[in-house]
What does this fold into?
Amino acid sequence: MKFSLFILFLMITLSAQADQSANHLARYIGNLNMYDVTFTLLDSKCSTSYALTKKQVEEIDKLTLEKTGVSYKKYISIVGDPELTLEMAEEAIQLLLENNCNARLLDQWHYRVSKGVDKNLSELRNAEPTNMQIK
It folds into this structure.
């Protein structure tokens, strides 16, 4: 009886850890997708060049594949909500657009926001892979 309770406890603990790992990965990958969409949208509206670099996107894709078993684009298509992400990106840049894409404001905004990209990319690099199946 004690052994079966121990096994049950162990399974619940491992499941909780897997869920926690999946939640962390979802947050990091989701945040990076939000930055990706926001920067791309801002580039199209204000003629800036803030979009994630090809190298950054390739690293995100590689890390996502390593940590989740699926590519970045596939992960976002399964877990993400493109319409909501775009809506949130539009809200995030609304003041910049209302200020006619003021160069000084854009640079200040990008400087602050790009720190989030670096932080989430670093967190993704250090995150534990998930055992959960993502299909």
